[in-house]
Amino acid sequence: MGEPKQLLHVGGQTLLERALQTVRGAGVCEIVLVLGFAAETIAQRVSVEGMKVVVNQAYRQGLGSSLCAGLSALDPLTNAALIVLADQPLVRSKTLDQLIHQYQKCRAQIVVPTYQGFRGNPILLDRCVFPEVMALRGDIGCRAIFGNHLEEILKVPVDDIGVLIDIDTKDDFAKLQRIAQGEADRRALLEAADLHGREIPKVQDDSRDQEEIIIVGTGQVALALAKLAKVMGFRVLVVDPLLRAVDLPDADEVLNTLDLSRPATSGRYVVAASGGRFDEEAVQQTFAIDCNYVAVVANRKRAQDLCRSLKAKGYSVHKLKTLHAPAGLEIGAKTPEEIALSILAEIISVKRKGEHGRLAG
Length: 361
Fold this sequence. Notes:
This protein is α/β, with parallel strands linked by helices and 361 residues long. The chain folds into two domains: 5-192, Spore Coat Polysaccharide Biosynthesis Protein SpsA, Chain A; 212-353, NAD(P)-binding Rossmann-like Domain (Rossmann fold). The protein has helices spanning 15-24, 39-45, 63-72, 93-106, 130-134, 170-180, 186-192, 220-231, 279-286, 300-312, 317-320, 336-353, and strands at 9-10, 13-14, 32-35, 52-55, 80-83, 110-115, 118-119, 123-126, 153-157, 212-216, 235-239, 253-255, 268-272, 293-296, 323-324. The strands form four sheets. The chain has a six-stranded parallel β-sheet, with helices on both faces. Helix 8 (220-231) links the parallel strand 10 and strand 11. The longest helix has 18 residues, at 336-353. The relative contact order is 0.09. Residues 200-208 and 355-361 have low confidence and may be disordered.
């Protein structure tokens, strides 16, 4: 471009100033600006008041390094982040607010704007996928993780063609200037948008082949079970209202909402290990879905109390017999690691022999 792309002028403002204006006009709590090439020059010419500026010294390694730098700088209590590109000057603030609103309604892992069915930017990421994005290497963006989360992507239709238009070449910039001057009609806008590769792939039939262990709670037994299950090749999902994905690297996914109504995997094994906080609610949800194994980490008395409570709520003896409570095979386990081993052994036993479980004595 002959100069840093962020400093190109359109309609009296630089591309970066227009992007920042869009973000400032939306309902965000914090703005982190990641700079790389020509960082000092850009910071001197663009107002960065009221935001956190991060200089990515490794910018030559590609976009992945900038994503990592930006996400690392967020407030630790951040629930989700919009990944906003500096070369998309036509995106509207209300589009960002739409993405935020839809995320707050359903807590999807990834929220993507679409225009006439085509995927655009910016996208919104839930904290649970931050570690995966931060691990990206090279000149690749968030799209690289889409294939791992096809069931968790929320597509939000927006009336904003700006989500499709970015500036990568001098020709793109010339088209943008014509648009800014009001010379482009709707057809020209569509031509300015590069639609290649913007379709979100559909879920393949084999995407759920990996067997999954769902662990509700984050006690010592739960943490040990997550580690062992990962070693044994299971996909690990941990459910806890306060857990962050970065706090539990052994988990493939962290869910902060107790909602087990997920698409079935080839094998689903649920272990409630919340110390009684929401074990009963978790078990009730499993009774309404297809599970190969349901268990509660509890001593024998608490397991009996739980079964009596569930029976009082109308669950049949037949249904209760599918519940493994206390969880795990009788191997004399005492430590959290030993208890986790006994549970995993029971899961493997059910997996191999097709056993149906037992009622707490």
